[in-house]
Specification:
With 962 residues, the protein is mainly beta. 6% of the residues lie in helices and 54% in strands. It has a 22-stranded antiparallel β-barrel. The protein has a five-stranded mixed β-sheet with strand order 8-13-14-11-12. A four-stranded antiparallel β-sheet has the order 3-2-5-6, with no helix packed on it. The longest helix has 14 residues. It is globular. Belongs to the TonB-dependent receptor family.
């Protein structure tokens, strides 16, 4: 199939080649002193109407230039105008002019000239996307500021074909986060999650972002492990001038702020996402459960008393959300070295409360036959500290050195009180989950840019990344009583704790886990141009190598309480049951058991090496073809200590060649046609391979890895038409097709009780669709109001199909790998998990440069997508569409003060997860009917509309917006 696709692509490429124009002049315009690009400099051929403005690189192109000698006039505000006579243009050739402008002897008043290259404006991002060889879309810091998006997760959902899951995980073209690669400053980021291959985009605050570019097609320069897209986040590099800026935000959320909630307490600096030593498991505990459980009840109870009695809940009144930011920029010289620094410090403390309806059904012949029904009172408080610290050293116009560091720490304190009934057993249920999670991510990198000569450039990046995730002392407890039972006085009977004989993840217990992941990265990239650049468009080659070493250590411990003899205290309150005087190990008291398995801890090593070579071939001035080849070698190892011996669970060594083609045809100066082909892959993550079993309390589901997973291979075809009516306008239509071999999918194990998920390789899959993007301004309108309006919109239609085949390979409940014959177990064909059939984003932006008023209205919706895969016993659960509308208003005063008002999720439609009872692949509107055609709500809640008020103050005068 690959050969046919390549042949078809080359045929299309050959058919679209065209003759060159009479002649072309191109070049760059820079500041004579700083060597920086002069964006917007005017270039004109004297005596003609042929002219252009320099783009983000200071580059310009004049096409359809008559053959002969011409005088070129170059001008820019506050710079001396330059005339270049006798510029010769030959038929079919390109003449190159690289020149510099000198500043005027006397600076103009009230004019600020930005010598630094701007990359964070809407015009700059559009220009960058236009010049890229692969198919890409993006969003600028300027647009993010207008939208008042708080983090990268909120900002990136404005991009075509992108949706966000759980307010932090990104899906591109309907494909889950596992199919996306994320890079920060061109270095692959580590996964921020333990259970899935995902990067949590809410870790990156929006005010440190320079721009985000989403690559939809592959290239030799980009990582090969993707199918949906490659997201490159670029943090701010250097300031235009010295400044200090402070911002404070207060937030109010419906159904949360000023409400009284129940939460658990944690020692330590929770407001910084930290915890006390008493929450850490003492090193005195035996390392293996077999050794621990051999001890007598009294000895094990002694260890139990080392665990703090921190079960009691308290009532608190939820305060408004608070966010603070401090931004500083400095530029100075050390000898002949130009130095700049950009520092950003962020802190936030936010709250979220929700009343979540949770229903489980019998799933027999009768619709809405309830098995269990609950209401979860969920309250979470999150804190985040973020620091960006970037240094730039300009040693000369041909050598730059940068040091970039990004640190984020997040802490989440979540309390869930589950109240309801287990209808099938006629019991009332009362459960508690008291969880604290801390995540720390650090990335630091040193990079250098070298211009070896006019034809050759070289850059390198050396980076280190660390991810830490801790769950210290996650406490869970379940109480039960007979439905309708009463005491001797006629009042409802008291609840009693459910005490299992052996520890399990649902009932009485305490869970501890920690993860440490370290990543070392080295990348070297080069570019060389061939031929005489003053004569014609130069052909170029790009080459490079990328190396990464990743080490992960994960460990988990789980302890459950047991009663010794009859225990009346289990009818007591939550705070008194586990007092030290009750944990005695004697008759009438408590003791503990270790429910940990050896495989609950693992060590992972991943060595990843890649090398690439790509070249540009120009067919006149209209058409270019980029041919690339990337080779990737990956060695993935997983180990665990079993009975004090190190056991190898996984050792996968694989080399995969990854060819790519990117063809661009310039229909006109403002229209391009792009065609792309790439071969990519998708590797399993450590957690998907590890046989460790993890219990998701909120979903009542068990999740375990599969050591037999294989690497998926993907073939990608893309075609895009793009039209740029002006520098900040865009219309584009993109079609794509993807074919997967051995795609990694979620699989619901056929168990008689409960939900247990694993990961499997399906036989094949395909994904295809079309995307539309429009950005429209009204600069030529007679109305000043319309001149200040910009319309932005994008929509995607997507279809996918997974063919599981007849047999899949995965673990059983005991962890033994086996083959599952799918006949009578599940559907062999279905949509891909998490794939949305449609996505729509729209926005109206208004900006008045005279009054400094800005406002925008934004809209987002996605189509129903599979949230959890089902089988014949348990129907598939879909996440349902919800329309989201945001409103943002801002006003600046004297260029030093800015006030912003934001209202997010005005409609406050419910978040709804419904199961497909009749298994027709669609969720009907009627979810209450008892007929066989009814579908059923599993989880449903409202997040609440969110109101924010922000004040920004710039110390000293500042006339340039970052």
């Amino acid at each position: 199939m690959k050969t046919k696709l390549l042949s078809l692509f080359l045929l299309l490429t050959t058919a679209t080649l065209a003759l060159a124009d009479p002649g072309t002049i191109r070049g760059t315009i820079k500041d004579a002193k700083t060597k920086e690009a002069l964006i917007g400099a005017s270039v004109l051929i004297e005596g003609t109407q042929i002219g252009a403005a320099a783009d983000v690189d200071g580059s310009f192109t004049l096409t359809n230039v008559p053959v002969g000698n011409h005088k070129i006039i170059i001008s820019f505000v506050s710079y001396q105008t330059k005339e270049i006579p006798n510029v010769r243009v030959e038929s079919g050739n390109t003449t190159v002019i690289d020149t510099e402008l000198d500043e005027e002897g006397k600076a103009l008043q009230e004019v600020v000239v930005r010598a630094a290259r701007a990359t964070n404006t809407e015009v700059a991002v559009i220009s960058e996307i236009k010049q890229l060889k692969p198919i890409a879309v993006g969003i600028s810091a300027q647009q993010i500021q207008k939208s008042q998006d708080r983090d990268a997760a909120a900002a990136i959902r404005r991009v075509p074909g992108v949706s966000v899951v759980d307010n932090r995980f990104v899906m591109i073209r309907g494909l889950g986060s596992r199919y996306n690669a994320v890079l920060i400053n061109d270095v692959i980021t580590p996964s921020s999650e333990v259970d899935t291959r995902s990067f949590s985009f809410d870790l990156v605050p929006s005010n440190i972002i320079d721009r985000m570019i989403v690559y939809k097609s592959g290239s030799a320069e980009s990582p090969g492990d993707f199918a949906g897209g490659i997201i490159k986040i670029y943090t701010k590099r250097r300031p235009d001038q010295n400044f200090t800026e402070g911002a404070a935000t207060i937030g109010y959320r419906n159904n949360t702020t000023f409400q009284t909630v129940q939460t658990h307490t944690r020692s330590g600096a929770n407001w910084l996402g930290l915890w006390g030593k008493d929450q850490m498991l003492s090193s005195a505990f035996p390392k293996r459960s077999a050794d621990f459980n051999k001890l007598e009840n009294i000895e094990r109870a002694g260890y139990g008393r080392l665990l703090p009695n921190s079960w009691a809940l308290k009532n608190v009144n939820v305060a408004p959300d608070m966010r603070f930011a401090l931004n500083m920029g400095r530029r100075f010289d050390i000898g002949n070295v130009a130095v700049s620094n950009l520092t950003n410090i962020n802190y936030s403390l936010t709250n979220q409360r929700a009343e979540i309806g949770l229903n489980l059904y019998q799933n027999g012949l009768t619709a809405n036959d309830v098995f269990e029904k609950y209401t979860d009172s969920n309250y979470a408080r999150q804190s985040r500290v973020g620091v960006l610290h970037n240094w730039t050293f300009r040693f000369s116009p041909v050598f730059n050195l940068e040091w970039k560091t990004l640190f984020n720490q997040m802490g989440s304190t979540e309390t869930v009180i589950r109240n309801g009934q287990k209808v099938v057993d006629a019991t009332d249920e009362l459960s508690y989950s008291e969880r604290f999670e801390n995540r720390s991510i650090v990335t630091t990198q040193v990079s250098g840019d070298h211009k070896l000569n006019d034809l050759t450039k070289l850059n390198w990046i050396a980076g280190y990344g660390y991810t830490g995730r801790w769950e210290p002392d996650w406490k869970r407890m379940r109480f039960q009583r007979e439905t309708g039972a009463t005491g001797s006085d006629g009042s409802p009977a008291p609840f009693r704790a459910v005490v299992p004989t052996d520890p399990n993840p649902i009932d009485l217990g305490r869970f501890f886990s920690k993860l440490h992941e370290r990543v070392l990265t080295l990348a070297v990239n080069g570019e060389h141009a061939f031929g005489n650049p003053t004569d014609r468009e130069p052909n170029k080659i790009r080459f490079g190598v990328y190396g990464e070493r990743k080490d992960r250590d994960y460990s988990a411990r789980f302890y459950g309480y047991n009663s010794v003899g009859s225990l009346a205290i289990f009818a007591g309150n939550l705070g008194s049951i586990f007092a030290p005087e009750n944990v005695t190990g004697q008759n009438g008291g408590l003791t503990i058991k270790d429910g940990t398995k050896d495989l609950d801890s693992y060590q992972g090593i991943n060595n990843y090496y890649a090398a690439y070579l790509s070249g540009d071939v120009y067919f006149g001035t209209k058409a270019s073809l980029t041919i690339g080849f990337r080779g990737e070698f990956n060695n993935q190892q997983l180990h665990s200590v079993v009975v004090n011996e190190k056991k190898e669970l996984v050792n996968n060594k694989l080399f995969i060649p990854l060819p790519s083609l990117n063809f661009t045809y310039k229909i006109t100066d403002r229209q391009n046609l792009r065609l792309a082909y790439s071969s990519t892959l998708n590797r399993a993550e450590f957690r998907e391979l590890a046989p460790f079993s993890y219990f998701d309390f909120n979903l009542l589901a068990d999740i375990r890895g599969n050591t037999s997973l294989k690497t998926a291979k993907i073939q990608n075809l893309d075609a895009k038409w793009e039209f740029y009516p002006s520098t900040n306008e865009l219309i584009s239509v993109t079609a794509f097709y993807k074919h997967f071999k051995d795609p990694i999918e979620s699989f619901l194990l056929p168990t008689g009780n409960g939900l247990a998920y694993t990961f499997i390789n399906a036989g094949s899959a395909q994904n295809y669709g079309v995307e539309l993007e429009v950005r429209k301004g009204f600069q030529e309108a007679s109305s000043s109001f319309l001149q200040n309006i910009t319309l932005v919109g994008n929509a995607s239609l997507i279809k996918s199909t997974v063919n599981l085949g007849d047999v899949v390979t995965g673990p059983d409940l005991g962890g033994l790998i086996q083959n599952y014959n799918l006949a009578g177990i599940t559907d062999k064909k279905r949509p891909m998990a998490n794939q949305s059939p449609y996505l729509v984003n729209a926005g109206v932006y208004y900006a008045d440069p005279h009054s400094n008023w800005q406002w925008n209205v934004l809209y987002n919706v996605f189509g129903q997508r599979i949230f959890t895969v089902g089988n014949m016993e348990n129907p598939t659960v879909y996440e349902m569409p919800r329309n989201v509308v945001d409103l943002n208003i801002s006003k600046k005063f004297r260029n030093q003060i800015e006030i912003r008002l934001g209202i997010q999720d005005i409609l406050n439609q419910p978040v709804r997860f419904s199961q497909d009872f009749n298994r027709d692949g669609k969720i009907g509107k009627d979810v209450t009917s008892q007929t066989a055609n009814a579908d059923q709500d599993i989880r449903k809640f409202k997040r609440g509309s969110y109101f924010t008020l922000t004040g920004v103050y710039t110390f000293g005068k500042r006339t340039v917006i970052p």
